[in-house]
Structures are given as C-alpha cells and as structure tokens.
Specification:
379 residues, alpha/beta, VC0802-like, Rossmann fold, 15 strands, globular
Length: 379
C-alpha cells in the first residue's frame, strides 16, 4: 500500500523525515512529492485517515492505484486500465468524480487531453460494473489525480479533498502575507523541535508559534477541520467506528505541556490578530504575543529563533532590508547557544550573518517564488 504525498518543493527531505517518525517507509522522492509505503499493521482505511489527520508537513494524501513508465497517452491509459479493479472497488455506486493531470517534463499530450481521455475511460468502466457516476469538474466527490514526472506516471485517488491539508482552519485573523502551516511545520522538523524556548521576532499571524505548540502538545489537524474526501470513498462498512477509535487515540495523546513560545509583532492590528489565532488554535495559554519593535526589545535567552523577517513589499518603509538584517544579527549575536532558522533572500541575510556558524541553506519553491531557508548557529 503506497501513497504519494505532495509537500513544499525543496523540503521533501523533512516531509520524509516526519513520515518515517510516524512509522511510514520512505520509498522515493520526486519534485515536491514523496512516496511512502504504509505500515501493514493498519488497514487501508486506517492509513488514509491517519495520513490526513496526523502529519504536519504534507499538503495532501493520494493513494497510489498504479504506477509505471510511459512514453505516450496510450501508455498512460493502459496504466489506468490495469487499475480498473481498484477504481471500481473504491468508487461509490452513485457520486461524482473528476480527473486532474499534473505534469512536469515534455510529453506528446497535454494535461487537459490526458484528463479528458482518462475520465472517459473511468466513466465507461464504472458503468460496466453498474456504478453510475457523474462527471463534476467543479465540486467532485472523488478526484482521480494523475501525477507525471518526465516518463514516470502515478495513477492516484485523492483522499484529502478540495482544500489542501495546510488549511488547518484555525486562523481567526488572516495576515496579508500568511505563512503556510506546512512550511512552519517543516521549519520545526528541521530543528527536531521538542519544546525548547522559541522566539519569533516577526511573528505576523503567529503560525510558527502555533505549529510549535501543536507539535509539542500532539494536537492533530483533525481538531480544526472535518471535511475530507475519504468520507466519499467506498471502503466498506465501519468507517464511522474506525474514525471514532482513531480520534479517541489522538485525543488521549494530546497534552497540556507548557512551553515558552514568544512572538513579537510591531503592527498593533496584526499583534491582536495573532492573539486571536492562538485562541482559535487552543494554545493561547502557552504563547505570548508582544506588540513591540523586535529591534528595540530584549530577546532574552531562547534556544531557537525561527522567523520569516519582512522583505520586499512586507518591509516597513522606515528601514532598509540590509539595515534590518544587520541589526537583527547584532541582537542575536548577544545570545549564546541559539539556533536561528529564517526565510528570506540569501543576498540580504548572508552578509548580515556572516559571523555565525552556517548549518544549512535550502532553496524552496514557495508560491511563485524561489526563496531560501537559512539555518545558523551561535555558540
């Protein structure tokens, strides 16, 4: 039983690390995706539920129905045909579906052409087995997603649904430039974060702080959303009982650990919004938000400083990027034994942090941009 799990491109290593920690075997890495094999101790139903509810670093969960190398659209259609039994088994008797094709590389067919042809094939095979699906491209109950990377194709069934797993639903206030929850979780996975004092001096909507608290307290994604596509999949009887049992297990694993999580935000409205978010996320008791200028307050002695400092259009007009990063570096230099993990443009923060021990630079694809994750250490 294999799953294709999309994540942020450039961060695949850390998504795989989290999944290994959760008991899944990492099979391979593609661009912005990892392939894992599920533990045999869980059924198909249990694995689908757990993968949607527990991991923090992945965007969605796609069950692999078939995979193989292709050179033409006919090869792709043959892969789908080989998965007919699986498709018929998982599709409900009535319901809607769509096919979505995501390609990277050069091919003799378009994504639209592939989706149309494969959608027609799936429709016909379901009809032959007395299932009566409707094609719905707007709000389908099921999405068969075809992932193609060069000559490698994966025929999958999306079990997450329209909204990616990064949409945790705990945001009462939406920052103008919000950080993805999955990216915040990846930063914490990079650090093996386990509850040490953490500071975000430019906290915005407090996403990093909230994900830190959730990681330590074992608060699962399902605490904030209840809509998943797997409810529409035909997995036999017992789905309600299995979801209830897993939910009880996850609730039992939660804790009220008190950790020192401190955020600083110079904008009053955003500081208020951050506090609202911590309440909505059930962690306001362990996160402190200060409406202050980060460059003018005492950082104290955090073990980790994790942040997405402002740059470009997010920067206050009263200070330049170069000045901001150099002043920030001088403040952090006063703290001993601190790991610093930041997001931003390498050309700006590399000169500012030149005196720090550099642990890692990673280039990631974030929306329409390529940005850097920089990990430094001050002994």
């Amino acid at each position: 039983m294999r799953f294709l799990l999309p994540t942020i491109k450039g961060c695949e290593e850390y998504a795989a690390k989290e999944l290994r920690r959760l008991g899944y075997r990492h099979i391979s890495t593609l661009q912005g995706k990892i392939i894992v094999e599920a533990p045999e101790k869980y059924s198909l139903m249990e694995n689908i539920i757990r993968l949607n509810w527990i991991p923090k670093t992945i965007e969605r969960v796609a069950l692999i129905l078939n995979e193989g190398k292709i050179m033409s659209l006919q090869d792709l259609r043959s892969l789908v045909e080989e998965a007919d039994d699986f498709i018929v088994e998982l599709a409900p008797k009535h319901g809607s579906f769509a096919v979505d094709t995501i390609r990277s590389g050069s091919h003799s067919f378009t994504s639209i052409k592939a989706s149309k042809e494969i959608g027609s094939d799936i429709f016909k095979v379901l009809e032959r087995h007395e299932k009566y699906p409707k094609v719905d491209l707007t709000n389908p109950a099921l999405i068969f997603r075809i992932w193609i990377e060069n000559d490698l194709a994966f025929i999958t069934l999306d079990t997450t649904g329209k909204n990616a797993l990064r949409k945790r639903r705990y945001l009462a206030y939406r920052h103008p430039a919000p950080m993805r929850t999955t990216l915040a979780a990846i930063l914490l996975e990079m650090l093996d974060y386990s509850g040490e004092p953490l500071l975000d001096p430019f906290c915005g909507g407090a996403t990093i702080l909230i994900e830190s608290a959730h990681r330590v307290r074992n608060i699962p994604n399902v605490a904030f959303r209840d809509q998943f596509a797997f409810y529409n999949i035909n997995m036999g009887k017992g789905l309600g009982n299995v979801t209830h049992e897993i939910l009880l297990e996850l609730v039992d694993a939660m804790n009220d650990a008190q950790v020192t999580l401190r955020g600083i935000e110079i904008d009053p409205s955003r500081a208020r919004g951050a506090m609202l978010n911590t309440k909505r996320a059930f962690v306001s008791d362990t996160i402190t938000i200060e409406n202050e200028d980060a460059l003018a307050v005492d950082f104290k002695t955090p073990r980790f400083i994790v942040s997405n400092p402002p740059f470009g259009v997010r920067l206050n007009n009263n200070i330049t990027e170069t000045e901001l990063y150099h002043r920030l570096a001088r403040k952090i230099k006063e703290i001993s034994d601190v790991d610093i993990l930041m997001i931003g443009p390498k050309k700006i923060f590399k000169p500012a942090f030149d005196e720090f021990h550099q642990k890692k630079y990673i280039t990631i694809s974030y929306g329409a941009f390529y940005i850097k994750l920089a990990h430094y250490y001050n002994p």
